[in-house]
Design a protein that fits this description.
elongated, alpha+beta, 19% strand, 4-stranded antiparallel beta sheet, Tetrahydropterin Synthase, Chain A, 5 helices
């Protein structure tokens, strides 16, 4: 026979499979280049007692640990490989996602959560690297902080106080 305390409340924990998409993070890869990376993780609660009693909020715990693991993996490898024997985020996606799954699983195991799969959903250089060096637009001749200098460049004499400026005739207009 089993006895249940009538004053305790029951806490429902879903053991359904869930998807968790991490926020897009800007991280420096192993080469120091800024990249943008995000991942999706498929997980489920395997041990409901540990999910309730080991952490305050197991869904938030999975979110934080996923983002931490994504940042760690991104900073551990270069975006592209410089040699054939070096793992890279872009070139070796299967190996990297396998390592990401292993790292997330190790981080969330104390909360009774099992990682089913993880995949990188976004992997690119940050916009400041992807666009390359920006060139400033060429300066126009009329762009001058001194308005009198702008009128000289445009072919008219500067106006003095109390005097209006008159255009200087060009050589083609004088015959």
């Amino acid at each position: 026979m089993q006895w249940v305390n009538p004053f305790t409340r029951r806490i429902a924990v879903s053991t359904r499979i869930r998807n968790q998409e991490s926020a897009q993070a800007k991280v420096n890869d192993a080469g120091g280049n800024p990249i943008e990376i995000a991942a999706v993780v498929v997980w489920r609660v395997a041990d409901t007692a540990r999910a309730i009693y080991s952490v305050d909020d197991y869904t938030q715990f999975v979110t934080i640990q996923t983002e931490t693991a994504v940042r760690h993996i991104a900073s551990s490898y270069p975006y592209t490989s410089r040699s054939d024997d070096e793992l890279a985020l872009r070139d070796n996606a299967d190996e990297i996602t396998g390592e990401l799954s292993t790292e997330i699983a190790a981080r969330v195991a104390p909360a009774g959560v099992r990682i089913i799969e993880s995949r990188l959903t976004r992997l690119s250089y940050a916009p400041e690297i992807a666009q390359g060096p920006c060139r400033s637009p060429p300066r126009t001749r009329s762009a001058s902080p001194n308005p009198d200098m702008a009128s000289v460049r445009q072919g008219s004499a500067p106006a003095t106080p109390g005097q209006t400026s008159h255009p200087v005739p060009s050589r083609s207009a004088v015959s």
